[in-house]
Amino acid sequence: LDRHPSLDLLQGDSDSQRNYSDTVIQRILYTLDPLRAGRVTDSQMRRAGGTFCDALDSLDGDATEDICLEGRFFSYEHFYVIFSKFTDLDDDADGELSCDDLLRYGNGAISQRATERIFCLLRRGRGHIKYEDFVWFLLSEEDKSSSTAVGFWFRVLDVDDDGRVSRHDMEHLYTEQRARLLELSQEDVAFDDIVCQLLDAVHPRAWDGVSRSDGFTLHDLRRSKLCPQLVNMLCNIDKFLASEAQDMHALRQAHATPHLTDFERWASLEYWRVTEEQDQHQHGAICNAR
């Protein structure tokens, strides 16, 4: 904050400095402390700390002049997008979100049952979720392939908290998704057909005497590398339909930028969209003032 030239625009603005710092801290913890224990152990630093050290080095290397070139933790553009998404939902500007607020994320693409489950996990006994909780949600929602995101979404899907996503858990979530698909005049796919597809894809191993056809564990989900497809099928109507339609723009973008994460691609598009909207708003205000 004090010495990087890209952050000069934050000088003298203590609120923005705090919000930027909070975002960076949560992104670091998202990578180094995936279980949200509130601390980073020596073993965690040995396992994942290299990414953080590389990011620090880049601030004196490739990202010396433009901090946005460091996309893992420190990018100002990423902070701007994340915080803008939070303020869009925080109508009363109290720094907290209710479950109804969170339900509006992504124009309501995530089902109510999934949103309620997410909210329950994030609030940790409180009545609302705070900005730091929202950062974890957004990072998990916009890049479901990261290690922390897979663990996050497994806990969302494991509705009864028994350490295994069972047919009952999946049916609880898919029932609402199926109703939403019918409202959009999409093909009606029965739960039995969906669960067969999911389990065939994940290919779970028998676990503690439980049949493979009755669910899967976190290890199964990690091994399958299918967390984005599975979660979207059960929880996110827009992303599920986009994947079914084979969104060619998203495929071309992924092919053109293999060095970027899903979150980095999403954030780049969102930053462009948000700044375009603000430019148009300012232009309209100037025209109206004339």
TrEMBL record:
Record keyword Calcium present: yes
Q: Which residues form the EF-hand domain?
A: 145-180
| Keywords recorded for this protein, A-Z | Calcium, Metal-binding
Any one Gene Ontology MF annotation carried by this entry is:
calcium ion binding
Q: Does the keyword Transferase apply?
A: no
Supply the SUPFAM superfamilies for this chain. Answer: EF-hand
Task: Please give one Pfam family short name.
Answer: EF-hand_13
Its cellular-component GO annotations read: protein phosphatase type 2A complex
Indicate what this protein is called per its UniProt record: EF-hand domain-containing protein
UniProt source species = Haptolina ericina
